[in-house]
Design brief:
Outer membrane efflux proteins (OEP), 7-stranded antiparallel β-sheet, two-stranded parallel ribbon, 9 strands, 52% helix
Length: 554
């Protein structure tokens, strides 16, 4: 498969928004979202010896919207003498929106594409790495202008009284003054200005190699910033999946609570009429208390997951974030038909960590070259001064006229008789080796992350199908138990185990789907996040659309 074909990893994400909106039907995303019972009832059984790469599952769990029911802490309705119609999962009333927030909490709607798109603009870690990029740009700009001169303008006054030595060795008492103003200061007697007006002082080796080194550092920090953004995208995606999971857990807990509430009512009715044991009614009430706490724990999980996501997006943590998606479905960011070796090659091509390590190697090589050429090229000092100068004996300032000075110096340096230069070269060479070994380490890390995430995706894809079959069996068991109760062939308490099994199977199906989505996001991160967050915005062509579009011709 060619590299362009490898880039088609993003193709399944063309319908990601439809999937995230809960419409995962095979008829182009127009199929209505299924309820929890329809998911369980219509789920196909697991075929014996199914292939390791089974088709993409399309299960959808219980929606976190609930129907109008008494809250978990409310008193159950008084029992009546008439026979109650069992509330089976298939006969649940249509769900109504439920934010999961308390009466005094504000709610904010959020979607996965908007959450991912908000990472670059709102997270302080991204702002920090962007500031580091600006810093490296400033350093690169400074390296490019090392050879440009500096300008000094001002004035100087010098007054001397006492002995001085002449060039022939004679010492005599002198009293004099000097004043200089303009470009250059500090000239006294026959000497040049100590502070030239226009001066350029630099090492030629630095002027040649420092801009190259700075360019590598800029590119490396850019790749490092991209890696930080990718890590945050993964964290936001996982936090969003965790928020969806919390709402789904609440929906499952509320469904199980309603089933347990109905069971408690039936066992109480049977106990009052003498058809059942009071101990069975007590046991059903104990189960109901456990399920009431499950609802409260699920509500707690919603608040914790919302606060975590708000922290990553730099939002108000006091607001309860509510997903716009009506349910959680398996995502298909990376198609299963792509081989593992192709995925590893894709990761090696896209990962910004490898780009950063390559730039760090380039910077280290530039430092080594600088040390190798440093003894061979000179250092330069150029000075130009122009201004007014005057002076005289004692405190007299006379004969003030224009003055011009020009100085040019070039010198070669052999540090510490050459031993200092040798040590500097050895140090730079060791830094090159360190950068190269670090690059190999990052390559091994990328390969490990791709393989690890791919194994998780393949395993968890199969787990979804098994979990679907488990939900289907649990629903059938619950229906048969309730049918036996309706036909007076069994006691209500016999349905307790089927209620528990249905709750457990729904949670297992939820775990399978969420862990599969998490593995998909981790694999997407390991590949270098080939689909950009902006591709997920409504109205924008996705990466898959662009890959499928024919190239433009002139």
């Amino acid at each position: 498969m060619t590299y362009s074909a490898i880039r088609c990893l993003a193709v399944p994400c063309a319908g990601l928004i439809l999937l995230l909106s809960g419409c995962a039907g095979v008829d182009g995303g127009k199929q209505d979202c299924r309820s929890a019972s329809e998911c369980a009832t219509n789920a196909p059984p697991v075929a014996a010896g199914h292939s390791e790469k089974s088709p993409e599952p399309t299960v959808q769990l219980a929606s976190y919207a609930t129907d109008p029911q008494p809250p978990p802490g409310a008193e159950p309705p008084p029992p009546s003498g008439e026979q109650k119609q069992p509330l089976t999962p298939e006969k649940l009333p249509p769900p109504a929106p439920n934010s999961g927030a308390g009466p005094n909490e504000s709610v904010r709607q959020i979607s996965l594409p908007s959450a991912l798109a908000a990472v670059s603009g709102q997270n302080p870690q991204v702002a920090y790495v962007n500031a580091r990029i600006c810093e490296s740009f400033a350093q690169a700009q400074a390296a490019r202008v090392l050879w440009l001169p500096s300008i000094h303008a001002g004035l100087s006054y010098d007054n001397h009284g006492g002995p001085v030595q002449a060039s022939n060795g004679d010492v005599s008492d002198q009293s004099r003054s000097a004043l200089e103003a303009g470009l250059g200061m500090g000239a006294t007697g026959a000497g040049a200005p100590t502070v030239p007006g226009v001066v350029a002082s630099f090492r030629v080796a630095d002027a040649i190699f420092q801009p190259r080194i700075a360019d590598h550092i800029v590119a490396g920090r850019g790749n490092a910033a991209t890696a930080v953004v990718h890590d945050l995208l993964l964290s936001v995606a996982l936090a969003y999946v965790d928020l969806l999971r919390a709402f789904e857990q609440k929906a499952i807990a509320e469904e199980t609570f309603r089933n347990a509430q109905q069971l408690a009512d039936l066992t109480a009715d049977f106990a009052r009429t003498g058809q059942g044991s009071p101990a069975d009614a007590d046991r059903a009430e104990a189960e109901l208390a456990v399920r009431r706490n499950d609802v409260l724990r699920a509500q707690e999980s919603i608040g914790v997951a919302s606060a975590h996501l708000a922290e990553l997006l730099n939002l108000d943590a006091a607001q309860v974030l509510v997903p716009q998606e009506p349910g959680i479905v398996p995502l298909g960011l990376v198609p299963p038909q792509v081989s593992l070796r192709q995925l590893v090659a894709e990761g090696m091509s896209n990962r910004p960590e490898l780009g950063e390590s390559r730039e760090l190697v380039g910077a280290a090589v530039g430092r080594l070259q600088r040390e190798q050429y440093a003894p061979l090229v000179p250092s330069v000092l150029l000075g130009v001064s122009s201004g007014g100068f005057g002076g005289g004996p004692g405190d007299t300032i006379a004969n003030y006229r224009d003055r011009f000075d020009f100085d040019a110096i070039a010198y070669w340096e052999l540090r510490n008789l050459g031993c200092g230069d040798l040590a500097a070269r050895n140090q730079a060479r060791a830094q090159v080796d360190q950068a190269r070994f670090r690059q190999v380490q990052v390559m091994d890390q990328v390969a490990r992350e791709v393989v690890e995430a791919h194994v998780q995706v393949e395993s968890r894809r199969s787990q979804i199908a098994i979990a679907e079959a488990g939900v289907q069996a649990a629903v059938a068991s619950y229906q048969r138990n309730m049918e036996r109760i309706r036909n007076a062939k069994g006691l209500p308490l016999e349905a307790l185990q089927s209620i528990q099994a249905l709750n457990q199977s729904r949670l297992e199906c939820l775990r399978a789907v969420t862990s599969y989505n998490e593995a998909q996001f981790r694999l997407h991160r390991a590949l270098g996040w080939p689909i950009r967050p902006t591709d997920l915005q409504p109205g924008n062509p996705t990466a898959a659309d662009r890959l499928q579009s024919p190239p433009e011709t002139a």
